[in-house]
Amino acid sequence: MIGTLINAGAIILGTLVGLLLRKGIPQRLQDTIGQGQGLCVILIGLSSAIKTADITCCIICMVVGSLLGAWIDIECRLNDLGKAIERKVSPHGAEGSVAKGFVTASLVFCVGAMAIVGSMDSGLRGDHSTLIAKSILDGVFAVIFTSSLGWGVGLSALAVLVYQGAIALLAMWIEPLLTTQIITEMSAVGGLLIMGIGLNMVYDKHHIPVGNMLPAIFLPMAYIPLMALFA
Predict the structure, then answer these.
(1) DSSP 3-state assignment of 37?
(2) Residues in contact with 164: Cβ distance below 8 Å, sequence separation at least 6, in sequence order
(3) In this structure, what DSSP letter does residue 228 have?
(4) Which residues have C-beta within 8 Å of that of residue 212, sequence separation ≥ 6?
């Protein structure tokens, strides 16, 4: 859990720095910075997605996961959570701004191989090096995200704390399920979702419901063993 706590702390610190920097940036420049961030996020997602060794796995997991997520309506629930926090903390703030920062940052910080592998190493071997490296990256991104999305980015520290903390605590039971192949495909599917987040940041009016696609990340854990069974 130490690595996860460091990670959450880095996000909060990055958010505070981003808020200080944001005060001196005109709205026009904030919008431009936000689109530039979106392009960088697309690149990060692409770099993970192209590492897939099984494109069929990505396609099937995305389709099935999207159907499941849309049925549960995860996107709506995440937005409702963000807006509920927004109403309590900033009742006169810009509608949806806190929710957008929370959802966008949570997805970027939680989706990816570093979150999974780092949390496993932290929980099993007490090796926090991967999560510390991730903390530095997340802290920098928190500064950049906050400059355009606002303080809702800081709330993503809670999502990181719950997600990575759960993996670290359950690492002993999860490790046999997460082979190198499965982690690679989970990272590839996650890369596609990160690309979707980047596209949302660039083309704000054409929203991709990335939250509804979240179950797809975990489906390689079922798909790959099934394919091995029937091969």
Answers:
(1) helix
(2) 3, 4, 7, 110, 115, 118, 119, 122, 131
(3) H
(4) 66, 69, 70, 72, 73, 74, 75
Phi-psi region of 150 (alpha: psi -120 to 50; beta: other; left: phi over 0): left
Q: Residue 32 has which token pair? A: 């431009």
Question: Which of 38, 87, 33 shows the shortest CA–CA distance to 208?
Answer: 38
Percent of the chain with pLDDT over 70: 92
Contact 86, 152 (CB under 8 A): yes
Q: pLDDT digit string (tens) for 99-158?
A: 778 888 888 888 777 788 888 888 877 888 888 888 988 898 898 888 878 888 888 899
Distances (CA, A) of 164 to 16, 73, 156, 198: 22, 23, 12, 22
Q: Which residue has the tokens 């990816």?
A: 112
Report how far residue 206's alpha carbon sits from residue 125's, in angstroms, rounded to the nearest whole number: 44
Contacts of 45 (CB under 8 A, 6+ apart): 190, 191, 192, 193, 194, 195, 196, 197, 198
pLDDT at residue 108, rounded to an integer: 84
Contacting residues for 121 by C-beta, under 8 A, at least 6 apart: 3, 127, 128, 129, 130, 131
**Residue 192 to residues 32, 111, 150: CA-CA distances in angstroms?**
23, 10, 25
- In the numeric block, which tokens belong to residue 35? 């689109």
